[in-house]
C-alpha cells in the first residue's frame, strides 16, 4: 500500500513537472495562431477572459517574458492587439506603425523576438479603412515624414489594381500580404527559422465593423 502511494506521488509529480514545462515552452506557430483566433472569437462575442491582467501576472513577467506571438500591426487606435485578441501582459510582442510596414528597426525587433524569445508566429495585421493606405492611394505631396511612409505602401497599389472590387480594401490586402512576404523572405536571420525552425509569417485582415480578424492567403 505504501509502495502504491509512493508510485502515485511520483506519477503526480512527473505529471506536474510535464504540465509546468508545457506551460513555459514556446508554442508552435499553429498553436499560437489557434490561441490568437480563440481570443479574437471571445472578443467578437464580447465574452472576453481578459487573461493575464492582474497582479500575479505582473509579478510573473516582471523578470522575464515569453510572448507566444508577434503582431505587426497598424498604429490605428481602433486596432489594439491585446484587446482584439483578448490577451494580456507578456503574451504579445507588438510592432506598430501607420500602415503596418517594416523598416530595419521593425525587422530587428522581430528578429529579437524570434531568436531571443523563441516566438514562432508572426501575424501581419492589416485592417479595414486604413488611413495610411488611403492617403497612399490619394497620393500628392504630404508634410513631414509622411511621404516616407506612403512610399513604402505604394508598391501594393500596382498589384491591387489588377483585382476587381474596392481599391482601398484591395490595397490593404496586398500591402499586408506584401509585408508578410517581405518578412518571410528576409535573408539575414529569419530565413533559417522559416526553413528549419517552424517560424510562420501569416497575413491577416481586421474588420473594424465586426471586430473579426481573419487570416488570408
Ligand atoms: Zn491603419
Describe this structure in words.
The protein is built from ten helices and five strands, in the order H-H-H-E-H-E-H-E-H-H-H-H-H-E-E. It has helices spanning 2-24, 29-44, 55-60, 81-84, 104-115, 131-138, 146-153, 155-161, 167-184, 190-196, and strands at residues 69-73, 92-96, 121-127, 200-206, 213-215. The protein is an alpha/beta fold. The chain is 50% helix and 12% strand. Mean pLDDT is 91; it is low at 12-24. A five-stranded mixed sheet has the order 2-1-3-4-5. The chain has one domain (27-215): Carbonic anhydrase (Beta-carbonic Anhydrase, Chain A), CATH 3.40.1050.10. The structure holds zinc ion.
Number of helices: 10
CATH architecture: 3-Layer(aba) Sandwich
**SSE string, helix = H, strand = E?**
HHHEHEHEHHHHHEE
**CATH fold naming:** Beta-carbonic Anhydrase, Chain A
Helix content: 40-55%
Briefly summarize what is shown.
This protein is α/β, with parallel strands linked by helices and 217 residues long. It has a single domain (27-215), classed as Beta-carbonic Anhydrase, Chain A, CATH 3.40.1050.
Topology of this protein?
Blueprint: H1 2-24, H2 29-44, H3 55-60, E1 69-73, H4 81-84, E2 92-96, H5 104-115, E3 121-127, H6 131-138, H7 146-153, H8 155-161, H9 167-184, H10 190-196, E4 200-206, E5 213-215
Parallel strand pairs: 1-2, 1-3, 3-4
Antiparallel strand pairs: 4-5
The structure holds zinc ion.
Zinc ion binds next to helix 6.
Could you name the key traits of this structure?
217 residues; Beta-carbonic Anhydrase, Chain A; single chain; binds zinc ion; five-stranded mixed beta sheet; alpha/beta; 10 helices
